[in-house]
Amino acid sequence: MSIMLKKLLLGASAALLLAAPAASAQTRKKAKAPAAPKAAATAARPDRTDSLALRRLFDEALLRGESYENLRYLTGTIGPRLSGSPQAQQAVEWGKATMEKAGLDRVYLQEVMVPHWVRGGRERGEIVGNKDKGIRVPVCALGGSVGTGGKLKAGVVEVHSFDELKALPDAAVKGKFIFYNRPFDDALIEPGAAYGRAGDQRRSGAIEAARRGAVGALVRSLTSARDDNPHTGTMAYDAAVPKVPGAALSTNAADQLSQLLKANPELQFELEMECTTLPDEKSYNVVGEIKGSKFPNEIISVGGHLDSWDLAQGAHDDGTGCVQSIEALRLLRAAGFKPERTIRAVLFMNEENGTRGGNEYARLAQQNKETHVAAIESDGGGFTPRGFTLEADPATAAKIMRWAPLFQSYHAADLLPGHSGTDIEPLKAAVNPKALIGYKCDSQRYFDIHHTAADTFDKVNRRELELGGASMASLIYLLSKYGL
Known about the structure:
Layout: H1 3-18, H2 38-44, H3 48-64, H4 67-78, H5 86-101, E1 106-118, E2 123-128, E3 134-137, E4 139-141, E5 152-159, H6 162-166, H7 170-173, E6 177-180, H8 191-198, H9 200-211, E7 216-220, E8 246-249, H10 251-263, E9 268-273, E10 276-290, E11 295-305, H11 315-334, E12 341-348, H12 356-367, E13 371-377, E14 385-392, H13 394-401, H14 404-408, E15 414-417, H15 426-430, E16 435-441, H16 446-449, H17 462-482
Parallel strand pairs: 5-6, 6-7, 7-8, 11-12, 11-13, 13-16, 14-15
Antiparallel strand pairs: 1-10, 2-3, 2-9, 4-8, 5-9, 10-12, 14-16
Helix pairs in contact: 3-17, 4-11, 11-17
C-alpha cells in the first residue's frame, strides 16, 4: 500500500469519525447542535447497504459478466476501427445493438464528421550505409502523416529534444531526416507520465523538422519495451510550414540506428509510405441510458472510445473501455438497482486522431442545457483495477474520497487527483460537471502494446476486465445515490 493511499484511508477514517453521532446530552455541557441533514450524513458515512450493493455488482460481474465476450466479438469479428473506415461504422452498429440487448431505457446515435486517414499498403524503412548496403528496420506511419511519394532517401540527424534541434546550424539539418530518439524515463513509477514527457516528439516532430528544412521525421516509439513493434499515434501539421512524412521506429530499430550513426554519421535512411488523407466521413457516437428514478435531469456519463488505430484489434485501446462502459449499466440493471440519477454509457468516436466525438458530445450537452454531475472515462486498458483519478474541486474530491473504504476489499481504493480522459475533457468548458473521473488500472504493461500490432484480444484477462467494469458500476451506484 502506498504512503499516499495510507494517508487517503486515514483521512477517510477521520471523516467517518467526525461524522459519527455526537455524545449524549448527559455528557455534554453545551447545547446539542442541530442534526445534519440525513442525506449529507449518509453521504459522509456510507452504510452497510452500500457495502452489500457493491458486493452484488462484483458478484454479477465475476459470475455472469458479459464484457469479455462482447470484447471478443468487437475485436475478432470487426477488428481495427480507425475513424472513417467501414469497420468503424460496423462498430457503431455493434455498439447500438449491444446496448439495446442490455435493456437500456434509450439508445441513440449522435452524428459527427470525422477525419479519414488511410495508411496505405506499403511501409518500409531501411538504414543505408557504405556502398548502399541496407538494413531493413520496422517502421510505421504516424497517424495523419503524408506519404513519401515513392522512396525518400536522406541523411539522418539524431536529437533528443526540440531545444537540441534548434541549436543545430541550418546546414546540419537541411535536406535530412530528423531522428527523435528521446526514450521513456523509466525512473517514473507511472508509465503514463513517461508517455506524456516523450509525446511531444511524436505530435510535433514533423512540424519542427520541416521548420528547419528537413525532409521528414523519424520518431522513437513511445514505450519502455525493447522490441520490434513500432507504435503509431497521432501527429500534427502546421499550415505555416511544409508537410513532411512522420514515421515511428521500433525501439530496437531506434537503438540500432543510433548506434550505427555513432560509427558512421554519413549513413542514410530510406523511407517509403503510401498513406493519404481522404475527405471527412460521417460517423456517430453511440449513447445508451438508464433514466434516473428521482433526479432524471442530473446525468452521470461513463464511456470509452469506439475507434482504434488500424494496426491491430484495438483491444486494450479502447475496446476494453467500451465494453466496460456498457457493462457498468448492465450490471446496475441486472443487480436490481434503479439509479436515482440518469446514467449514460457513451461510445465516443474519433478519440485517436481528432477527438471530434468528445467535442460533439460536449457541444450537444451545452446546447441542450444538460446538468452533468460527473463523467467517467476508461481509456487506460483493461488491466487489474486500482481505483480512479479525480479532476474536481477539493470539497467535491473529498466527498468521493470518503468512499475509498468501500473499494478496499476489491483493491480499487486509489481515489486520487489526476487526469480523467480525453473524451470527457470538453465537458468541463461546456457544462462543468462536478467531477471528471478516470478509471485507473495497473498500467505497467499498457504501453508495451499501446498503438501497436500487438494490441489484440489475447492480451486481455477476463477477470481483470470484469473487475474493472464492476468497479466502474460501483462508483456510478454511489454517485447516483448520493450525488455530489
